[in-house]
Amino acid sequence: xxxxxxxxxxxxxxxxxxxxxxxxxxxxxxxxxxxxxxxxxxxxxxxxxxxxxxxxxxxxxxxxxxxxxxxxxxxxxxxxxxxxxxxxxxxxxxxxxxxxxxxxxxxxxxxxxxxxxxxxxxxxxxxxxxxxxxxxxxxxxxxxxxxxxxxxxxxxxxxxxxxxxxxxxxxxxxxxxxxxxxxxxxxxxxxxxxxxxxxxxxxxxxxxxxxxxxxxxxxxxxxxxxxxxxxxxxxxxxxxxxxxxxxxxxxxxxxxxxxxxxxxxxxxxxxxxxxxxxxxxxxxxxxxxxxxxxxxxxxxxxxxxxxxxxxxxxxxxxxxxxxxxxxxxxxxxxxxxxxxxxxxxxxxxxxxxxxxxxxxxxxxxxxxxxxxxxxxxxxxxxxxxxxxxxxxxxxx
Length: 396
What we know:
Blueprint: E1 16-20, H1 24-36, E2 40-44, H2 47-56, E3 61-65, H3 76-88, E4 94-98, H4 103-112, E5 116-119, H5 124-175, E6 183-190, E7 198-204, E8 209-217, H6 222-241, H7 245-259, E9 266-274, E10 279-285, E11 291-293, E12 299-301, E13 305-306, E14 320-323, E15 329-333, H8 335-338, H9 349-359, H10 365-379, E16 388-395
Parallel strand pairs: 1-2, 1-3, 3-4, 4-5, 10-13
Antiparallel strand pairs: 6-16, 7-8, 8-9, 9-10, 10-14, 11-12, 11-15, 15-16
């Protein structure tokens, strides 16, 4: 059996009209006319009563005389009232009634915000047409203003949330760099927008092993930051289960493949430092190959690994291993550094970075990080088109 549900359309509210005049007969006639036409009409007989009513309720239109008992010729009291009405409600339309064809008065009233005029004695149809027009225009303007105000509130809330998210990202960067005997670690993070899709971290897995990671989500801004937040949580969980870099990257790839949107992926470099043995095991998942600068200035690129994370179901990852020696510097970075461009459109590039690292490889980690950050920043006038993240590890 089909059950039919009846729906009742919501009728639009009756136009709420405030009529102001100091002649009782006119108030009665106008109120009767408007109520007959479906208006909700209220009457007042003095400027003070007009202001009290507007302060109490919202009206669709005010139909008011410009002349009152205290001033029956110049319209000055009515002109002052227009100004005071719009101080209370700037969008309230005012239709003025006057028995005088005074051009100067009409011009001054329009300057103060009157939308239209009705001359006494009025024609009913002309008066009703004028009110309908002004009510329609005012409702459109109010609706538009409400949408603008809602948009401003939404935008303000979004800016607040994005600012808080940036603070969280900065806090994660500053609190995930452990103090390691025999090693110095320094990191820099330069998002292209308020928040970024880069990630860099170092954390202890156990008493012997320390994990290091740098990663980059394709894209930037809030979507990339949200995706990177999920990556961070998955990385910590995977690293604690099995600290083998190839196993961790394989697990991350499967998790991301199941959960991230199409056309999104993450590049990353994940390594594990065996502190007593001073060895680094690593897997590079499609990321910019970190540079290991030896004490004598020779550079080794750490490329062993596999494809980017989150694209291929059957991706497998190889594992590399290098011996670390006193005086070595390991520099991990995202493409925001090498792809930073100068005014001529030239990229900073790998060769400039390698030359810079060779020249300054004897510096402590924090100073070397600062040299790279300032050199690339000056090259691109600190206008980074993409998130730029850097980690420097110095072997003591």
